[in-house]
Amino acid sequence: MNVLLSGATGTLGVPLVRALLAAHPALRITCVLRSGKSLQALRESLEPAMHGRIVPLLADLADTGGVEAAAAALQPGGAMIGVHLAADVSWDKPCDEMVQVNVEGSRNFCRLLHAASIAPQLIYVSTAYTQTHGWTYRNGYEESKALAEISLRKEFGARMPISTFSCSLVVGDSRTGEIARFNGLYPLIKFMAAFNPPFLVGNKDGLLDIVPVDWVVHELAGLVEWLSSGGEPTEVVASAGNTRIRYEAAVRLIERQLSLARGEQGQPSAPPVPILRDRQWGFLKRSLAAWQPPGISASDFRYFERLLQVYGTYASSDRVRAPLNVRTPAPDPHDYLPKAIAHWVDRHPRVMRPRTVGEAA
User: Three-state DSSP class for 118?
Assistant: First the structure.
């Protein structure tokens, strides 16, 4: 088995590299990395015995000219599976600001894959919060990921088999809480830890689709194994399905873990934060000139508003794809989410001093 991988230093990339190398002692993985610094970061996240089994291919996927030069220097080898993980995962950018990385970067990865192998096949990693048709995109991330898949199938579908792997909101390992990058749900955890927000926004009964990183990597590695053993191209959606968690339940789990951490530091617990509906939040925004929330400056309120808009959208709309072709059901977030939050707290002890939104950090 030969593997070309982008995003090796990311949330899924690090544990995927570790899992594949552990399962195949003779495997060497070619990793598309921006720089020697990225290579060093990847090596530091792996066991020393694995360092020599990483083959770096230095190229910035957002730089088409650089990718073309790197592709021209490659000698095509045998069959290879390309796993494209790299992406801009921001929820607050418009689509046109994400096209170069998420759409053109995906095409550039396929150009490298095609140059590196006479028999390539692709696993395009997307999000379970989008699809290429019949979808109303809530942000630029969802739209750009769908546009990338459409573009790849149009340009490369006749030249290589394409499989897709879509996962939902990834949090820490179900056993240890560990994760390589604190994206997705973690900015909300940070906000609730660093401030005492006067409220959050969303449907408290809305269902969040959250999955632990180890389960996602298990499913993704299974897809790699399936294709390497001659399996047909397929589509996998690694979402929570029946184990989705209510938005209010997730917020209360976060509060509970933060209260435990504050208690260990001799700090008082914060009261439960109210969760407002979109309509209530819209009224408060319209009446902001007359309403003076304690401790919230105008600049702080803009940041607060942006965060509420991002998470309120997903808490008010539980539109997410159902699980498809997974080997095992997703674990229950009531079991693993406290570990993920505790791990974040352990890594950010200085953030734990609660303060109001308007108070300087």
Answer: strand
